[in-house]
Amino acid sequence: MDKIKxxxxxxxxxxxxxxxxxxxxxxEGNLIELGEVANxxxxxxxxxxxxxxxxxxxxxxxxxCESKCxxxxxxxxxxxxxxxxxxxxxxxxxxxxxxxxGGTQIMLQGGLNPxxxxxxxxxxxxxxxxxxxxxxxxxxxxxxxxxxxxSGLSLRETLSELKKAGLDSLPGGGAExxxxxxxxxxxPNKIGAELWLKVMEEAHNVGLRSTATMMMGSLExxxxxxxxxxxxxxxxxxxxxxxxFIPWTFQPGHTELGGKKTSGVEYLKMLxxxxxxxxxxxxxxxxWLTQGKEIGQIALHFGANDLGSIMIEENVVASTGVSYKMSxxxxxxxxxxxxxxxxxxxxxxxxxxxxx
Length: 356
What we know:
By secondary structure, the protein is an alpha/beta fold. The protein is built from 14 helices and eleven strands. Strand 2, helix 4 (88-100) and strand 3 form a beta-alpha-beta unit.
């Protein structure tokens, strides 16, 4: 029996693969064989062949950011003519539109604006919860760390105050690659890997859940991708804080970093190995937003059980020149044609409605 087949038998037998074995799969594994095992792994969690999506809206409340990441085309300086901070009325208008379209979740994400302290966020959360029944899945670890530092509060105090005001869960943004020498090259002003993980652990400690992400295709090696997965898997063993893992691909357009796009084959291979390796994650999301609808559809046969949001609004990826959009009708049709039953979910991955 060759070493690839021997490694691939382990997850089928319910055994965990190591970092070294995951690396061998990435370097030497056959895409189709990896996809088959990832699909079988997915079936252990989701035997009913349902593929889910959520209807939500990304609300980028400010584009002013002192992080100035080299892979980002969205941020602006405070003095730029198109710099902004959204007011309550503008945010409410966006929530109204999302709810009219069947949305159940909003994701508030913005730049690390030096003028915004915790009062801005708690007042906004309280106002939203006073006026709407909607899940607030918002503020990535860099934002939490920024609010904490800017407000003179500990991470736990910051998360507790935000939760008390209405925060329901955290998105896993700002992870990029959890290897500091890569982070120093692509986002030198953003928090390091240890602090990103610490925010997530503290979120668990105050009773919040989260998702986890990985941005692949900037400057990292495949060894560093596996290191990233391993850090997430280790924290998940400890806390169970993560509901889902979402790998997506760096989009080089209009960014200081530049480079080339990650191919669909490389993405699907990484997705498959992620599903096999991340044996303590119930949900893995396919990224049609960065890879396109067709690859998103194929991802359902390579370990993904969820296609994320139909994206009523998205500005960060769109600022790189990539702008894939989908309606509820399109995503349900896409899922059906992949051989799955489409289902709209909520933030907790509870099924709200299936589409036969």
